[in-house]
Amino acid sequence: MRVGIIGAGLGGLLTGAILASKGEEVEIFEKLPFPGGRFTSMPYRGYEVSTGALHMIPHGSRGPLAKLLRKAGADVEIVNSNPEAEILWDGEFENVTRKSFPFSDGLKLNLETLLLKLGRDRKLDEFSKSLSEKASRTLEAFLGWSFSVFPDQMRFSELMPIVEQTMKYRGPGVPVGGCRAVIDELVDIIESSGGKIHLRSEIRAIRPEGSVRIYGKDEREFDVLISNIGHRLTMKLAGREISTPPESRGVKYTIALKEPFIGHSGVLLTPGRKISGMNEVTNVDENLGERHMLQAHQPLRDGRTEEIAEGLRDLREILKGYEYEIIAVQSYRGDWPVNRVMAGKDTGCRTPFENVYVVGDGAKGKDIEVDGIALGVENLLEELYD
Ligand code: FAD
Fold first, then answer.
1. Which atom of ligand 1 is nearest to the CA of 228?
2. Rounded to two decimals, what is the model's pTM?
3. pLDDT per residue over 89-103, tens digit each?
4. Separation of 7 CA from ligand 1 center, angstroms?
5. Which residues contact 97 (CB under 8 A, 6 or more apart)?
6. Which of 1, 44, 320, 349 has its CA 20 to 30 A from that of 366?
7. Distances (CA, A) of 168 to 63, 108, 228, 367
8. Which residue has the CA at smallest separation from atom 13 of ligand 1?
9. 143: nearest Cα among 128, 122, 165
């Protein structure tokens, strides 16, 4: 089968590696001069500053991405976080367990889950109002950190499948070498299986009639086309305008520290602030930075970049007394968002064209971020081979 792939992001490369290792003829076209899209990093001022992701895999070595990487033959070491998460509440670090919150919060969660089974579904901000302040703020920080959304942008029914995945596969992990180590492995697998990756190669149009013709630097023909650029942009290449679910936007801060601030490999949620959480992945792999590298994430409503000033104020308050330097402030929206489709709202890998599919964070399965991308790739493999 001749397979053309538009985009060498994680979705495109993961698909390409699996198909190439099955013996398919794979060619990938990437408009940028490097592979990896929003899941890689570049050395900048002594730190591996990522193009997007916070060097974290939501379910670590146990989740869907790790499983698919093993299936593709990728040799990536993923260190599971320990502890998985803490919260910074009233100036103290606290482990997150059920006991961290009033007993009544647990009862309300059970009741809401039951009511969902009986057909009542509501937005998370409505549910959140019924909780204690600590639980409500922690939920908001979790949504901001994990999905870059606010509680009024997600429904209970959209969150629950992801919570179930988290119960099953547990919390995050960090790949040794960061996101780029994952990308380098996938590129190696594709190239050693005879696949080709063309960089600086933007695709400007597609024509899906029988076989699929694509138009970039040259005109090419494939049996199947897999797009890593989301449904809206894919259809635009075919000359069709469609509307898709909303994207999620945010800002990432990369901070160099003389002394560690978090001191472990997990997440520190920061309830009650514009910044929703932080990690310090140099605690897993010291080669990711000259000193300690703290990364903080803040969701941005409607891409309001003026909120960055408030995020910077949070950082000054949180890091008071520490010697630190902000290495990069990166804002994500438009064609380079946090999520092309907000978590829980993805619409699957099929398109109106029989031989054109979408992978990546415009077509996630029911899970978080790159683990959702891996489930989306599995869905595509079922479509192609079952
Ligand atoms: P992309 O990475 O966007 O890849 C698409 C590729 O297609 C790009 O390289 C692009 O250049 C190329 N392209 C576009 N148009 C064309 C064209 N016409 N022709 C050729 N090439 C084209 N996820 C996690 O799991 N963990 C995290 O810690 C995490 N943190 C995040 C923090 C931030 C600030 C951001 C922005 C994202 C984060 N994510 C995280 C999400 C994760 O980075 C993305 O879900 C993932 O990288 C998306 O991969 P993708 O393959 O779908 O898309």
1. 5
2. 0.96
3. 999 999 988 888 999
4. 9
5. none
6. 1
7. 9, 22, 28, 11
8. 7
9. 128
Percent of the chain with pLDDT over 90: 94
Residues flanking ligand 1, CB < 6 Å: 6-12, 29-32, 37-39, 52-54, 56-58, 202-203, 228-229, 250, 252, 297, 332, 338-339, 360-361, 369-370, 373
CA nearest ligand 1 atom 5, residue? 9
Q: Tally the residues of the chain.
A: 386
Q: Strand 25-29 to strand 196-198: parallel, antiparallel, or no bridges (unpaired)?
A: parallel
CA angle, 178 as apex, 274 and 141 as ends, to 5°?
A: 20
pLDDT of 384 > 80? The answer is yes
| pLDDT value at residue 376 | 97
Q: How far apart are CA 139 and CA 96, in angstroms?
A: 11
Question: Ligand 1 mean position to 340 CA, how many Å?
Answer: 8
Name the β-bridge partners of 28: 5, 197
Kindly report each contact of residues 107-115 with a partner whose C-beta sits within 8 Å and lies 24 or more positions away, as own/partner.
112/156, 113/160
Which of 150-154, 202-206, 214-218, 277-281 is predicted with the least confidence, judged by mean pLDDT? 214-218
User: What ipTM was assigned to the predicted interfaces of this complex?
Assistant: 0.99
What residues pair up with 251 in beta bridges, in sequence order? 298, 331
CA of 284 to the centre of ligand 1 (A): 23
Characterize 69-95 residue by residue with b for buried, 16 or more Cβ atoms within 10 angstroms of its Cβ, and e for exposed: beebebebebbbbeebbbbbbeeeeee
Integer angstrom CA distances of residue 79 from 121, 176, 181, 282, 323? 36, 7, 13, 12, 27
| Beta-carbon-side half-sphere exposure of residue 90 (alpha carbons within 13 Å) | 4
Q: Would you state the torsion angle of the CA atoms of residues 312, 313, 317, 322, taken in this order, to the nearest 10 degrees?
A: 40
Does 83 sit behind a cis peptide bond, omega within 30 degrees of 0 on the bond before it? yes
**If you average pLDDT over residues 369-382, what whole number do you get?**
97
**310-325 pLDDT, tens digit each:** 999 999 999 999 999 9
361 CA: nearest ligand 1 atom: 52
- pLDDT higher than 80, residue 305: no
Q: 38 CA distance to ligand 1 centroid (A)? A: 3
Counting ligand 1 atoms within 8 A of each CB, the residue from 228, 232, 275, 297 with the most, and so the one to mutate, is 228
Residues forming beta bridges with residue 25, ordered by sequence position: 2
